[in-house]
Structure formats: structure tokens, C-alpha cells
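[scheduler] slot 2 assigned
[scheduler] job type: sequence-to-structure, two independent chains
[scheduler] chain ordering preserved from manifest
[runner] begin chain α
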Amino acid sequence: MSLQIRSGRSATRRRSIPGTGGRSAAIFLIPFFTLFAVTMIAPVVYAIGLSLFAEKRSGLGFGDATVDFVGIGNYLAVLSDRAFLEGFGRLAIYCLLYVPTLLITALVLALLLDAAVTYARRAFQLLLFLPHAVPGVIAALIWAYLYTPGVSPIVKALAAGGIEIDFLSVQLVLPSMVNIAVWEWAGYNVIILFTALQTVPREVLEAARVDGAGEIRTAFSIKTPLVWPALGVALLFTVIGSLQLFTEPKILSSATTAVTSTWVPNMWAYDAAFNRNNLPQAAAASIILALLAGLLSWAVTRFTSKERTR
């Protein structure tokens, strides 16, 4: 018995040694921080360093190439490039169309799911989430087929009804891309908002019904304000994802001349890196996009936090 008591006391002493918990946590966090530094921090630092230099050739361009420090010269060149600025204009219009359309669609579908009968919920959840399971490249290829005149059953059906429409025209190619993105990401955001709706206290909803509130008023006046934090998260992810627009225009560029190789900033950076072999300017464009994403993330976070505290 005395041996057991002594062993128990020694174990207690070992557990109470200060600093052991912190060291154990640090050991388990080392793999994460190592991977984070290698895959996130190092590429960003390398891109920043690369953007500060430029390759130059003497004479008429036939001399040996030298790498010179140009400071913010690449950033100024990128920001003064007309194609890059026009791409930002298209991206801004895309965001104005895509962000509210996606969030409103996801919110309405989530509210409908929350009001649906129990046995139909899982079927609807699966149907809504299936498009998100399709890779972005495959989704863009599917819709490129559905948009292309001559092969698209949708275009043929509309033509049979007397409606001639070209989804890949200069006027409609941007809304067509918005449709692809909404189709692909609506289900993902529906799941986020629907999960938040499940945490709404049922007694609050019962009290609203007792006060005479109908289903529509309950949905938008009671449920929606209570899931605002989840809606803010969806807004943040959607804004960041909008700035990464690349797959849809890249795929559709092979089906229409309305989409050029520099149609959006990400395509401009891709063209600079792999077609014009100007890696420093591509790095500068990437850093500019990263800074813009960080600024917008901060603005969205501030906006959602203020609305939450009202």
C-alpha cells in the first residue's frame, strides 16, 4: 500500500512539473508549423524577392542577360498595364454579380431546407452538394459544352422556341461564368448556413409563431439575423474565392474569342509567367492580388463583426 501511495505521489509530481504541457503542445505543433512555413511562408517570401528584380539585356537584346534590382519597378509596370487594369474591372463586375447572387441563393435554399419535411432534407442536401463534388475544371468543361452553339441541347431548345442566345458572346460570357460558379459553390454554402440554422433555439421560433409571424417573416426576421455569423463566414470565403477566378475563364477561352489570355488578373499573371516568360512581373501581380485579398478580408471581417454587435 505504501508503495502504491509513493508511486502515486511521484506521478502527481511529474504531472505538476511546470512547462511540460507547453513543451508537449510545441512538439505536436512542430509538423504543422513546418509544413505551413514550407508551403505558405516560403513561396510568399520567394515571390516577394522575385518581384523586386528584373532580367535585362544589353544592346539590342542579343547580349547576355543580367538580373538587376528594380525595387517596385515591376509593381509599377503591372499597375500601369492596360490589360491588367481591364482585367481588374472585369473581376470587379464579376464580384458584384457573383457574391450577392451566391449568398442570396444559398440563404434561400438553406431556409427552404430548414422548413422542409425531415425525410426530404437529406435528399435535397445531397442534390445541392453534388455540384461542389465535381472538380472546377470538369464543371467548367460541362458548362462550356452546354454553352457552345451547335452542340448545346440548351441552345437548341431555346432556338426551337424562337429564342436565339449566345451564352459565350461578349455581353453574356461574364454572367455565364457567374452561373457556373453559383452552380458549383451554392451547395457548399447551403450546408454552412443550414448547419447554422439547426442551432437556432426552437423556443424562439415557437414564440414567433405564437406572436403571429408567418413562415416568410420568421425566416427573414428571426432565422436570418441569428445565423449572421455563419453568413459572414460564407461572405468571407466567397470574396476570397472570387479574387481567385481563373478556371472558368481559362476553360471558356478555348470556346470563345470573347475571353482573352489576360481576361482577369490571374490569367494575366499566368500569361506573364508561362507565355511571356516574365516571372518577376507575374510575381508582382500575384503579390498585388494577395494584398487585395487581405485588404478585402479585413474589410469583410470588420463589417460582419459590426453587424453582429448591433
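[runner] end chain α
[runner] begin chain β
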Amino acid sequence: MKKFKNIMDKAGFLTAILLLIFQSCSSSNDSSDGGSDNPAPSNLTIQVEVVGKNAANPDGDGSGKVNLKINAANAVSYKVLIDNQLKEITNGELTYTFTGSGTKTYSIIVSAYNGSGQFISSTSSVNVYVARKILWADEFDVDGAPNTSKWGYNTGTGDGWGNNELEYYTTRPENVIISNGTLKIKAIKEEYMGSHYTSTRMLTKGKFSFKYGRAEVRAKLPVGGGTWPAFWMLGDNIDTAPWPACGEVDILESVGNNPNVNHSSLHSPGRSGNTPDTKTTTVPNSATEFHIYAAEWSAESIKFYVDDNLFYTYANSASTPFNANFFLILNLAMGGNFGGTVDPNFTNATFEVDYVRVYN
């Protein structure tokens, strides 16, 4: 739709900068402040305790918490580069909590200072497991209209929403309703406000947005030529940075004219419209069975999955729009540039959603 690692490398780069700074400080003080009255630090040791680590959980209990104990002879302060963050301490003890989900290896660089600019440095590393934590979710377990504290709507034709779409988006229960534990977005062939089809487009803009993490939907897709269901994200700054400058991440897009194929794409300046940043994967029985469509997003990459099977990795960087807050969108379009020709026998179709979840 017009919708809109390398940790070690980074640590190495930051380390080089820090060491240059440290060396500069040291060289400017060695000649005047060194000597037996203020000896240089020595015998630097780093002890790293991963909270909850045991035989069953070799990388910790999932909290991501580590305790550091640092000691060096003649040291009065320490600088610790951990998770690309610089911490300064005086007592040699530091507790830090990693937040990136999954099991990762982190570099820890420590420098001990004697108060006169002299220092020694040492590097350690630690494996840490961080369990996924839900930041936001809608389980659609209360019958009736969707929760207005979580969802708003785009309504009307939006002049085809930039894609020559044919539907009129409404908030009517005929088009959007929660029942029996799932959200139903229903596209209907009917004459309404000058359009030949109705449907719903709901979004979390102004209610929830996030930067980095995992967004997923468990859904069953509609049937019929011309249907175009989607689960996607737009940059929260869209009002001041109009599309495609705000960025767009399409996690789930499928069209009834080419069933059982999921498209995941990214749109950004110079890479909008027919973006080259896209891949597809086959999803058997997507209209009769629920499947999980997800994206895992970090500063380094955006990885796309169906049922936890990775099929596309996009290399993110500081030059893209994908390093700011994004909000979520669910919708079912009809026709348009991507949806294609609507089956003349189409009457209605339902995009059924079991849940939407966002993790750290």
C-alpha cells in the first residue's frame, strides 16, 4: 500500500574513540602528575554476574540484568562502555539491564583511573538472554466495538488513499466488530456515500507508537479478487514529514487476486511506490487458517517473519526514516493499484484478527 551486527562493530568504533580520548587525557597528565606519589592503576579485574544464571538458564533468567564488580589497584574511578552506553562509577559496582530481546553477546570495556589522568583498560564480554515483554497488545476479547483507548479510524474515501482504492472506510459495526474473541473487518459491496464498497481502516496514531521491537498480528485473510488486507506501520511524524519521508513498514499485505502470498515492504524517500525494498513468501491456507505475521525492528535491521520463519531482512541504518516512533494500522482495502480488479461476483469478505502485539 502507499503506506506508508553488529554490536561488536559499534562497540569497537566507540572503543576506539574512547581510547583516543583516554590516551589524550593520559598523555597530557603523565609528565606532571605521574610518579610514586600517585601510581598508575594496575591489576584491573572485571567480574560479571548474569542474574538468574544457572545450569538450566545459562544466559540468565530473561530479565536482562547483570551485576558488575570492578577493581583495580590505585583506581579512584571507572568508566564502563556497555551496550553502547558510557557509565562512570567510583565504587566499582554497576547494575545494568539489557533490553534487546533474545540471546546476544555484549562487549564490556572498562577503564580504571587514578585521579591524575592515568588509566588502564580491559575488555570482557557476556551472553545475556532477554525475554520478550509485551509493550502493548489488543487481544480482541471483549465483544462489540474496538477499544477506543487503543484505536482510532481513518474514514471516507481519502481520494482513493493515493492508490485509487474503491472503498469508503466507516466505523459502522457492519464493517468492524469484535465477536467470539476476534476482530472482524468486513468489506461489503454496497452503495454508500458515492462509493461501491465499504470497509474499515483503524490505527493507533495518537494513542500508541513505539521505536524498535517486535510487532505481530495473528490473522486469517479474506477471500475474493480485489481484496487487499494489511497490517503495517507509519512514522509518527507523518503530519510534519509527509509520506514517504515519515517511512512505512508493511508487515502483512496480501491480495485476493494472488492468494496465499504475503508481501513485506518498506517505503522511504526515493524508494516509494514500486519500492525495491520488498520480498514475498508463500503462506498456505492463509484464508482458512490463522498465521502470525511479524517484524522485528532494530537500529541494525528489520526482519520479517511468517509463523516465525524468517524470509526477509532489511539492513537498517541511521540514514533511513526507520529510527523513530511508528504507529500501527489494520485495514482492508478494495481494488486500487495493488488490489487490482474486483471480482464482479464479490459480495463481502472478512479480515479476521485474533490479536495484535508489540514486544520490546
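[runner] end chain β
[qc] chain β: Residues 87 and 215 are 31 Å apart (CA to CA).
[scheduler] slot 2 released
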